[in-house]
Every structure is written in structure tokens, then in C-alpha cells.
Specification:
This protein is of the alpha/beta class and 351 residues long. The protein has helices at residues 34-41, 58-65, 77-83, 91-103, 115-147, 161-168, 175-206, 210-215, 223-233, 244-247, 272-288, 290-300, 307-328, and strands spanning 2-7, 12-18, 24-31, 48-53, 71-75, 252-254, 263-266. The strands form 2 sheets. A 5-stranded mixed β-sheet has the order 3-2-1-4-5. Strands 6-7 form a two-stranded antiparallel ribbon. β6 (252-254) and β7 form a beta hairpin.
Length: 351
């Protein structure tokens, strides 16, 4: 069986083909998009396996290559950098390296979720961007007010109907400030409408996954955290408990030698949206549940200077608990566990 290394790009891709013994038998540059790459691979007379690096659209390309190849492997780009650190880099060289890894069966492969899960993840990320934009516009409005010494209602009260009406009636030195405010308020209204539409769609999707309701039995874990965790985990059985924290970038960097062990900041690898939601949920849970609070206090070690570190470590603990719940179907048992458990999940153990 032939082995193909593919360095794929939108306008030009490179192929490197190895025979069964690992000898290079063909190198080719394919001009054009994915259609040309798929067409070229469809001309192969012998069965082949293929490897390419994960990048934008890797899932869609995987589905197009699967009917053609005996085996398709998608390589983790971060781990590839650790394996091949070379001063000489080009499309042709990268394709050759990918082919060699595939031939040796040493590809650091990534999980390729289904189209449904990829779309779900994409909508979750889109909602996060809408929320970020909404927060940015609100900050711009408050900055405009501060620039003229105007103090508005505290917190969310400024964005109620009464608060927005008060904003529109504010006197300004010139019409230019009023125009700026009107444009920002219109943008805010538009963003809130779009956010509601996306949220409704996500709520509908989440209701189709029992794991989303199950994870909401954890105090502090809301629908947005639960759906993001379920979407990115996809298949919980592909993880060992100790690996889930690494996937979400919640484990510390390590630089150890001999008897000296040094742990740095967390790696921050993986989806940042889930990492942010996990740490926020961990903090909320520690304020409302004695079981989670006890874990937080143990991580804090009585040192208030460790608060941020303890919250991140608590998020790591929380994601391991959530993974265990998805695997077993058991609800969380805490001092104030939510009563909104799904009918399918019976409370069996104390986590």
C-alpha cells in the first residue's frame, strides 16, 4: 500500500508518495483548491493511506478523502513542531515529513468529529464572539460617559429599557457625541438580537444531548458551560481522566531536570472558550456548594495569594469530574446539587 503525505493549502498543495518500503516514488505539486487535490488522488490505481496536518477545514477535507483512502490520519500541528524542528521548511519538505510519519505509524493524530459536532462547536464559538462584541460596545458607551463625567446606573441596570431611554435623553456638548451614542446603541440592539437567535438554536441543540442536562446538576455549571464541554469532548471514552485537563490547557508547563522540578503557567492549549467557562463555573460552584468549596480550600492552602492558581486548579478538577459523569451517567452529589437531574441519570455515587 502506498503512503501519501499531503501539505494542503487553499491554492497550492504538495504530495509526497512512498512505496511499501518507504522509498520515495513520486512528488507532485497540485495547483488549485481541494477539488484539484481530491481529483488527483482519485487517479491513484493502488490503495493508499494519507496524512495531512490539521488546519482550517480539516474535518471537511477528511470527509472528502475518506472514500478514496484506506486510512486517513490528521496530524496535530503543535506536536509536529516538536518532532520536526528544521531550518528548511517548504510545502514539498513538509509533505515528505508527513509521509514518513505515516509510513512509520508515528502520526500524532487528532480526533475528527462529525459534521454535526463541528457545526455545533462553530455556533458556540460564534456566540462567544457576539458576546465579546456586545461587551465591547457597552464598554465604549461607558467610556463615552466617563469622558464627560456622566455617571450612569450601576451594572446591568443601564441596559434595561429605562436605562437605554435615559441614555438617549442625555444632553451632550455637540450633536457628534449624540450620533456616536445612537450608532452604538443601534449596534448593541442588533448584537443582542443576533445573540438571542444563536442562543435559541444552541438551546435546541443542547436539549438533544442528555450529557448537557446531566452536567448542569453540578452547582455553578450552566447551560453554556455544559454544552461547550459536551461538544468539545464529543466522545468521552476517548479520554483518560488524567488527559482531559491537558486537552483544555489546564495543566502547568513543566521544565524539570534531575531532582529539580519546575512547574510554570498552564499551557492554554485547546479551546479557550471551554477553558474560560470551566474556570468561571468552578468559581461559582465554590461559592454555592460545600463539596466544591472544600476542594477549593484545599487547593488554596490558606494562602490568599494563591486564589487565581486555586481557581484554575479547581477548573482542572471540575473537568475531570465532568468527564467521569459523562462516562458513567451519574449526577453530581454535592451539598447543594441541582434538582434538575435528567430522568436517565440516577444519583449513585458521591464524586
Amino acid at each position: 500500500m502506498l503512503t501519501v503525505g499531503l501539505d494542503v493549502h487553499q491554492s497550492c498543495s504538495s504530495l509526497c508518495v512512498l512505496d511499501e518500503k518507504g522509498n520515495r516514488v513520486r512528488e507532485q505539486e497540485v495547483r488549485g483548491g481541494w477539488d484539484h487535490v481530491v481529483e488527483e488522488l482519485g487517479k491513484f490505481q493502488e490503495p493508499f493511506q494519507i496524512c495531512y496536518e490539521a488546519s482550517t477545514g480539516y474535518g471537511a477535507l477528511y470527509e472528502r478523502l475518506t472514500p478514496l483512502a484506506k486510512k486517513v490520519a490528521v496530524a496535530h500541528p503543535g506536536k509536529l513542531r516538536l518532532i520536526f524542528q528544521s531550518k528548511k521548511k517548504s510545502n514539498r519538505v513538509d509533505a515528505s515529513k508527513l509521509a514518513s510519519l505515516m509510513h512509520l505509524n508515528q502520526v500524532p493524530a487528532v480526533h475528527v468529529p462529525s459534521q454535526e459536532v463541528r457545526s455545533w462547536r462553530g455556533l458556540i464559538e460564534h456566540r462567544r464572539r457576539l458576546v465579546d462584541k456586545r461587551v465591547m460596545v457597552k464598554n465604549q458607551i461607558r467610556a463615552l460617559m466617563r469622558g464627560y463625567g456622566i455617571k450612569g446606573a450601576h451594572g446591568a441596570n443601564l441596559w434595561t429599557k429605562a436605562g437605554v431611554k435615559w441614555l438617549r435623553e442625555l444632553p451632550w456638548p455637540t450633536t457628534l457625541e449624540k450620533l456616536r451614542l445612537e450608532v452604538m446603541l443601534e449596534e448593541l440592539t442588533d448584537l443582542q438580537k443576533k445573540e438571542r437567535q444563536v442562543t435559541e438554536a444552541l438551546d435546541k441543540l443542547g436539549s438533544q444531548h442528555s450529557g448537557v442536562g446531566l452536567l448542569q446538576t453540578i452547582p455553578g455549571v450552566g447551560r453554556r458551560t455544559a454544552e461547550a464541554f459536551v461538544a468539545y469532548v464529543d466522545d468521552p471514552h476517548r479520554f483518560r481522566s488524567g488527559k482531559i485537563g491537558s486537552y483544555f490547557g489546564l495543566v502547568p508547563r513543566e521544565d524539570s531536570t534531575g531532582t529539580h522540578r519546575h512547574l510554570g503557567h498552564v499551557t492554554r492549549e485547546g479551546p479557550s472558550t471551554v477553558r474560560k467557562l470551566l474556570t468561571e463555573a468552578a468559581w461559582r460552584g465554590s461559592q454555592s456548594d460545600e463539596v466544591i468549596k472544600a476542594v477549593y480550600e484545599r487547593l488554596l492552602r490558606g494562602d490568599k495569594g494563591r486564589r487565581k492558581l486555586a481557581v484554575v486548579a479547581l477548573g482542572h478538577w471540575l473537568c475531570r469530574v465532568m468527564l467521569a459523569m459523562l462516562k458513567t451517567g451519574e449526577v453530581f452529589r454535592g451539598s447543594s446539587a441541582s434538582s434538575s437531574a435528567t430522568p436517565e441519570a440516577e444519583s449513585k455515587v458521591t464524586l
